[in-house]
Amino acid sequence: MVELTFYGGVNEIGGTKILLEDQQTRVLLDWGLSFSQMNDYYDEFLNARGFATIDEYIAFGMLPAIKGLYREDHLKHADSNHPLKDNGAGKAADAVIISHAHMDHIGMIPFLRPDIQMMGSEATYSIMSYLEQTMAAGVRDYCNWYPSFRLVPMTRGNGMKRAMRPDLESEKVKREYIVASKGTSHQLGDFEIAAYPVDHSLPGASAYIIKTSAGNVAYTGDLRFHGYDVAATNEYVKALEGTDIKALLCEGTNADESPGLTEQSLESELTQAIDNAKKLVLVYYPQRDASRILTLSKAAKACGRKLLINPKQAFYLDMLKSFSNLHLPNTNDVDILLPKKSWGVWGDPAFEEKIQKQDYTSAYSRVIRDFIFDGRTLLTPDDVAKAQEEYVVTCGFYEINILHDLAPGKNSCYIWSRSEPFDDEGRFELERVKKWLNHFGLGEPLSLHCSGHLSGPETKELIEKAQPEIVVPIHTEQPGKFEAWHSDVRILDKNAVLQL
Ligand SMILES: [Zn+2]
């Protein structure tokens, strides 16, 4: 019998965690973090305690209590007889099939035991590796598992110390990753899995068709028809059309919305907005959305300006540059703006270069520091302040204090190129941004965005073409909308089991 258990991602946007079982094989379809549940219980200065993170998440329903699924170093540290240890029974899942590297799809993977394989695109692996190398805090063992709560001998003197990552390099376990390349079927136990690259607001997104003993299960992940890779999404739809689909697990983030801008029409709107601004243009957009970086770089170029990105983004794009199938900006069309941090002495000849660089010791991880200080051209806020009409500056919420140094002149503008806030956290952030903009005389933010998700009519079209027997709305707060588009829509609650 084939069973699907929905541990997250139903009746909510995010937190996708689905278990698919058939005879001897069990796979997870994404293993994401639920921002809404996280925000229900935690805050910036109230986090899960390191020694009991998995237990706290299970207590709040953010992770299901499944024996043999989680990393035993954490379980053992919390309780040497932890009830979720496998006790010889083996692992609870063979693999996690990853749609893409947004947190709401991969955020809980670091808590899985290291012998559970992963499957996804090559770009998804690179993005997870980027996260592993650059995340400042928290459990971030996406690609490699490092044993936690370990003591190692002191390097100097006697006694033991708590192990840090560099102490554990020889003991780390590389999580096995199956590259799901386009057009190939992968046999994973009882399943035959076919991956299809699709267009989304993050590079490397994949959708799947999984052959089970009860028929084909299709999982859309997150996708859209209005980015640079529409052809890829169309190919997935074509594959759905040509396959008997038993169950379609379909994202419905924007199920209640009409079609908005495409990435291409956004480019012309942005070009116009940038052209209208006589001084500085600042933009807030999802930092890892390479399509948006490309769109902004093209719009800036059309206005005789250059897009400035931050050091983390520059490192990110550099990691992705080897993938020829991605839509990335031309390296000549973007430059790096290095903000002032810490003592704020970068570029000050009164201080030795070594001291100047120390401004960034806690701001960026070592890999990013090595990358940016490797002879790259780094613009300073002063350079930009003096030539405001020459740049479009990436300026997210956590970077907005750079306005003090940029001193935007009259007729500058701030573009909000991301989705409208949908929760209290987001609304509060927007209110704060508005206060900053008001202080610096920038007026209201100008909203110009292209969504990463299907609109309502596009969702309807996908379902009509796929002609599945059953549709399960996922990644949506509007599952009821689907009922107008198909005769057998299963609106499920969290932890519900669907037998096929
Ligand atoms: Zn996504």
Task: Give a summary of the structure in a few sentences.
This protein is α/β, with parallel strands linked by helices and 500 residues long. It has helices spanning 35-41, 53-59, 72-78, 103-106, 122-134, 230-241, 263-276, 290-302, 311-320, 353-357, 366-372, 381-386, 403-406, 424-439, 456-466, and strands at residues 2-8, 17-22, 25-31, 95-97, 117-120, 144-145, 151-153, 160-162, 173-174, 177-179, 185-188, 191-197, 206-212, 215-219, 245-251, 281-284, 306-309, 334-337, 378-379, 391-394, 413-416, 446-447, 470-474, 496-499.
Describe this structure in words.
There is one protein chain. This protein is an alpha/beta fold and 500 residues long. It has 2 domains: 302 residues, Ribonuclease Z/Hydroxyacylglutathione hydrolase-like (Metallo-beta-lactamase, Chain A), CATH 3.60.15.10; 185 residues, Rossmann fold (3-Layer(aba) Sandwich), CATH 3.40.50.10710. Helices cover 27% and strands 21% of the residues. It has 15 helices and 24 strands. The strands form 5 sheets. Strands 10-5-4-3-2-1-24 form a 7-stranded mixed β-sheet. Strands 19-18-17-20-16-21-22 form a 7-stranded parallel β-sheet. Helix 7 crosses helix 8 and helix 9 crosses helix 11. The termini are close together. 43% of the residues are buried. The model has no long low-confidence stretch (mean pLDDT 96). Bound molecules: zinc ion (ZN). Zinc ion binds next to loops.
